[in-house]
Amino acid sequence: MSFLSITHVSKSFGPTTVVKDFDLSVERGEFVSFLGPSGCGKTTMLRMIAGFETPSAGRIVIDGEDVTDVPANRRRIGMVFQAYALFPNLTVHDNIAFGLMVAGRPKREIAPRVAEMLALIGLPQLGDRYPYQLSGGQQQRVALARALAPSPRVLLLDEPLSALDAKIRVSLREEIRELQRKLGITTIFVTHDQEEALSMSDRIAVMYGGRIEQCGAPFAIYNQPATRFVASFIGTLSLIEGIKGEGATVHVDGQPITLDAVPEVAPGAPVTLALRPEAVKLDASPDRINTLNGHVETSQFLGSVVRLKLSVAGGSVLVDTFNRPTAPPPRSGESVALHFGPSDVFALAPQEANPSALPAIA
Ligand code: ATP
Description:
Elements: E1 4-13, E2 16-26, E3 31-35, H1 42-50, E4 57-62, E5 65-66, E6 77-80, H2 92-102, H3 107-120, H4 136-148, E7 154-158, H5 166-183, E8 186-191, H6 194-200, E9 203-208, E10 211-216, H7 218-223, H8 228-233, E11 238-244, E12 249-252, E13 255-258, E14 270-275, E15 291-301, E16 305-312, E17 315-322, E18 335-339, E19 345-348
Parallel strand pairs: 3-8, 3-9, 6-7, 7-8
Antiparallel strand pairs: 1-2, 1-4, 4-5, 9-10, 11-12, 11-14, 12-13, 14-19, 15-16, 15-18, 16-17
Helix pairs in contact: 2-3, 2-4, 3-4
The chain binds adenosine-5'-triphosphate (ATP).
């Protein structure tokens, strides 16, 4: 049995259902992200795990205990919020001690445990400071220490990095992940930042409209998106319109494109092809399959890569080419031929038929 089971959980506020039949099993020590756009129900689901909201339907079980009706303060859960939520009038030491006192820990255990937590977050000297004397990143590390001090069974992180500036965000996400691995604590991380979710998670539950659209390892979510929404929400995609041919073929302006998998629609039906910028190559030769001709609309030098926007029949295609000082990229207006492998392109069914359906990609 998994460590955290969320079984068919729904949540309505009045007539509006904001979490719909959410079903997820999380293993002990796993780091799972809830990723989705604003308003998709991530925080509401997290708050139900914490016990701050009661599900309208379904059960939540932690380590074999059904906690659905257990009050928040008896669930043994640690939580870190987006805003630094530290007590401004308490020192760092007392902020961390607070959770231990609430948990009823004997007084003699508190000081050594606070010292241990300060060492764990790399701030052993800062126990006497007040929150206003800390940087944003330091405050979030203290918030993390406060959440972890009582040894919770599950750690819940609600966009804990979103208020920080970009550089600290990247270093802190590595620190959080390292700490989580070291402690082996089962963690749920809420974010709307796909890069955060991709870089930190064992698994990502991509949410849309209160439902899980797809749950899987970052590699699978990125490379085998199961729905139109996941395909477009994660990473960058170019869309080209085509017409379904025989078998696994789609025609774009008369050119046959071969794919590994296509939607089950009749030949002649419209099909949209979706391509990642890194999957498209420019060194096309006449005997290659999946070749399209076009010309360069724009060329953006980004340092390690050059992002080209190409105009082809059926749409525009973004292409990332590695910067090579000896081979300048093609310039605006230049004619180019591009190609891609059958496994590097997804085919999306017509939206009218099924807005989020994609064939399984082997
Ligand atoms: P964000 O990234 O913006 O925080 P989210 O995915 O975490 O978004 P939620 O905060 O879970 O989304 O909100 C989901 C929906 O539920 C929103 O439309 C929100 O307005 C609504 N909602 C949340 N809490 C309540 C409440 N207490 N009463 C009524 N509606 C609520």
